[in-house]
Design brief:
Elements: E1 2-6, H1 10-26, E2 31-35, H2 45-48, E3 53-54, H3 56-62, E4 67-71, H4 76-86, E5 95-96, E6 101-102, E7 107-108, E8 113-114, E9 119-120, E10 125-126, E11 131-132, E12 137-138, E13 143-144, E14 149-150, E15 155-156, E16 161-162, E17 167-168, E18 173-174, E19 179-180, E20 185-186, E21 191-192, E22 201-203, E23 208-209, E24 215-221, E25 228-236, H5 242-246
Parallel strand pairs: 1-2, 1-4, 2-3, 5-8, 6-9, 7-10, 8-11, 9-12, 10-13, 11-14, 12-15, 13-16, 14-17, 15-18, 16-19, 17-20, 18-21, 20-22
Antiparallel strand pairs: 22-23, 24-25
Length: 252
C-alpha cells in the first residue's frame, strides 16, 4: 500500500512527518509520495531528493490501485474541491496521531487528519475529510461537518454543531450549544457566544459578524498546491488576530 499526500506546502510537510510517525508504528505504507501541481519543488530540495513528487495527472496515470490519498490543505474550500475530484477514484487515508485522545464513542469518518495532542471527546461525530490540528479540543456531543478545519489550540465546547467546510482559526473558543453554519469562518483568538449563520465571517471577543472584513495584502495561495506564487492580491484577513489588525489599520 502506498500513501499519497496531496499538497507539499507547510501543512503537507507536517502531514509527511505525521505519516512517517504513524507508519513507524503500523508499517502500513510501503512508500509515501507527494501530489502537487503548483509548488516550486526546488525550494524543498531536502525533501525531493528522497521523496517522489508528481502532478495529479502523472499520479493518476501511474497509480491506479493499492494507494490511499490524504488531503494536506488547510483551507476548507480546497479540501472540499480536492475531495470531490478524487473521491470516486481513490480511497482516502485517515491519519490519526497515536498521542491524540479519542473517545471510544467518538465517530470519525474517512479522510480525517488528526494531529498530536488533539482531543475528541465522548459521543462526538466528525464528518469526512476533516483536519484537526495539534492541541485542538472537541468536547462531548459535538457534530463537526465534513471538510472543516479546526486549527491549533481551538476549543469546541459541548453540543456544538458545525456545518460543512467551516474554518476555526487558532486559539478560538466556541461556547457550548452553539451552531455555526456551513462555509463560515471564525477568526483567530475569537470567543463565539452566539450562533453564526452559513457563509458568515466572525471574529473578536466576543465574536461579531463582519460584513466588510478588514483586508490586507497576502501572497496568493495557489489552488491545491500549498505553495505561493509571486502575485500579490487583496483578500480578507480572515485568519488573523482581529485585535491586532483593528488597532493597526495603518498597515492595511
Amino acid at each position: 500500500m502506498f500513501l499519497a499526500i496531496y499538497g507539499m506546502g507547510g501543512l503537507g510537510r507536517e502531514t509527511l512527518d505525521l505519516a512517517y510517525y504513524i507508519n513507524s508504528k503500523t508499517h502500513k505504507y510501503e512508500r509515501i509520495i507527494f501530489i502537487d501541481d503548483f509548488t516550486d519543488i526546488k525550494s524543498y530540495q531536502y525533501l525531493t531528493d528522497s521523496i517522489e513528487v508528481l502532478s495529479y495527472s502523472k499520479f493518476h496515470k501511474q497509480y491506479k490501485e493499492n494507494v490511499e490519498i490524504t488531503i494536506a490543505q488547510g483551507m476548507p474550500k480546497y479540501r472540499q474541491d480536492i475531495y470531490k475530484s478524487i473521491a470516486q477514484c481513490y480511497p482516502l487515508a485517515s491519519l490519526i496521531h497515536p498521542n491524540a485522545t479519542i473517545s471510544p464513542s467518538a465517530k470519525i469518518s474517512h479522510g480525517a487528519i488528526v494531529f498530536q495532542y488533539a482531543t475528541i471527546s465522548t459521543n462526538t461525530i466528525l464528518g469526512k475529510n476533516i483536519l484537526v490540528l495539534p492541541n485542538a479540543n472537541i468536547t462531548h456531543d459535538c457534530m463537526i461537518g465534513s471538510h472543516s478545519v479546526l486549527s491549533y489550540g481551538t476549543t469546541i465546547c459541548g453540543n456544538v454543531v458545525l456545518g460543512e467546510s467551516v474554518y476555526i482559526a487558532p486559539h478560538s473558543v466556541i461556547r457550548e450549544r452553539i451552531q455555526i453554519g456551513g462555509n463560515a469562518i471564525i477568526g483567530m483568538g475569537s470567543v463565539v457566544l452566539r450562533n453564526i449563520e452559513k457563509n458568515q465571517v466572525a471574529y473578536g471577543n466576543p465574536a461579531k459578524i463582519q460584513h466588510n472584513p478588514i483586508k490586507t495584502l497576502f501572497r496568493h495561495q495557489d489552488k491545491w498546491g500549498g505553495g505561493y506564487n509571486n502575485q500579490i492580491t487583496t483578500i480578507p484577513s480572515l485568519y488573523l488576530h482581529s485585535t491586532y489588525y483593528t488597532s493597526h489599520k495603518d498597515i492595511v
